[in-house]
Protein: MBL fold metallo-hydrolase
Amino acid sequence: MKGEESAGGLRIIGPDIAYRRIVFVNVVFLGPAGAGDRGWVLVDAGLPASRGAIVEAAEGRFGPGARPSAILLTHGHFDHVGVLEDLAADWDAPVFAHPLEHPYLNGTAAYPAPDPGVGGGLLARLSPLFPTKPVDVADRLAPLPQDGTVPTLPGWRWIHTPGHAPGHVSFWRESDRTLVAGDAFVTTAQESAYAALTQEPELHGPPMYLTTAWDDARRSVEALAALQPDRVVTGHGRPLQGPEMRRALDTLARDFDAVAIPRSGRYVAEPAAPQDGSAYRPA
Structure:
């Protein structure tokens, strides 16, 4: 499910959903073509130095100067907030995230160190070089509503899907069974640089080198599989849809311990404690 390509390098996969791949990570745009200023929402904010690509895609889809009504974050890892500070300021847009991600978004806490010991390929080995320090959008940061609704997006709800990050969330629309899953699971073998670049579609658990609570990650995949989505857009890899995708997601949930959890790694036996010292208790 590659989608139709449009202006700004976007892939259109539905009347009001599109994405752009930034090297190896996806940025998602929710809203109909031509929605105009404040008529759409951005999900995640790409890699460092990707501001121009994201703005180009947004203006090609929604119109010149079109700003989002909000920026939603699945989580705060470096490849999902690379230009968050710049975009939030340029667009004067509110940023919504789960409260457990706020320490990593308001400048107060760094993520636990990546785990190169999980194996799987070059990206895993290079992971100690990935930045873990927080960004700071405290002046625009707000919690996602406790009732599960998504600001400015009627018909969508957010689901807490921790494991890859304490406050990781996914976004779900029941009407057409569309799931924006972030990194709760992905559709490419993200540990391998070759797979990350070629994007051969196949379901995998969350990127292993940055996942710090594997029991939570399993429960999150089980919860998402139970939704029986018809279309999934993940943080890494191509969107997938249909019965074959659902069967693969069911298999991933059922066999998670065998196929998703690495055989070794610093967080396999014991989840990481948050860097700010607070207790991590998934909601």
